[in-house]
Design brief:
heterodimer, A: 114 residues, B: 113 residues, seven-stranded mixed beta sheet, four-stranded antiparallel beta sheet, 0% helix
């Protein structure tokens, strides 16, 4: 079974600084997708960024980028120029290529301080 | 474009009561899922469906039933509520075979007393 591990329950970053959230996963599949979701206090789950395993190039979305290390099964999220609105729970998630199920890590709570 | 609509947003139940959490999506997604979110445990899959008439169990199915009579709707039934079912519940939907992330509803906070 696939597993997703987020080893940092909480992280803190100062406004305008850069922070990296860690995620590792375990799978025997070769075709899969990885995601980072943001959950602000509103509770809404918001897709931040998506990575296709067959693409070597790391995905980027504005201030959000990933470091995808396929051999190491690592998928970290880097937030640049952190803003107060980035404060949220962040979940890493995995989906096998043709599967319907999404597997989540336990989440990292990010605090952004002035 | 409503996306995924969950009702109710909040609910308090007494132990032993039953209820149905409603979920509807208007994106013609074939895949739908129910998750529960508990502190320190992330989101865990309860039941999922790959199309109308097809459902299957996820990681934590005990105490819950689902059905999928239409593509749009995927209700979750609590048969006899227990305090251990106090949680936040999310419904989500996705297209099949595209690697898309799921689109989530806004969640239901359920308290069982």
């Amino acid at each position: 079974a696939q597993t997703v591990t987020q080893s940092q329950p909480e992280m803190s970053v100062q406004e305008a600084e850069t922070v990296t959230l860690s995620c590792t996963y375990d799978t025997s599949e070769s075709d899969y997708y990885l995601f980072w979701y943001k959950q602000p206090p509103s509770r809404q789950m918001i897709l931040v960024i998506r990575q296709e395993a067959y693409k070597q190039q790391n995905a980027t979305e504005n201030r959000f980028s990933v470091n995808f290390q396929k051999a190491a099964k690592s998928f970290s999220l880097k937030i640049s120029d952190s803003q107060l609105g980035d404060a949220a729970m962040y979940f890493c998630a995995y989906r096998a290529g043709t599967a319907s199920k999404l597997t989540f890590g336990t989440g990292t709570r990010l605090q952004v301080t002035l | 474009n409503a996306g995924v609509t969950q009702t109710p947003k909040f609910q308090v139940l007494k132990t032993g009561q039953s209820m149905t959490l409603q979920c509807a999506q208007d994106m013609n997604h074939e895949y739908m899922s129910w998750y529960r979110q508990d502190p320190g445990m992330g989101l865990r899959l309860i039941h999922y469906s790959v199309g109308a008439g097809i459902t299957d169990q996820g990681e934590v199915p005990n105490g819950y039933n689902v059905s999928r009579s239409t593509t749009e709707d995927f209700p979750l039934r609590l048969l006899s509520a227990a305090p251990s079912q106090t949680s936040v519940y999310f419904c989500a939907s996705s297209r099949p075979g595209t690697g898309d992330g799921y689109t989530f509803g806004s969640g239901t906070r359920l308290t069982v007393v």
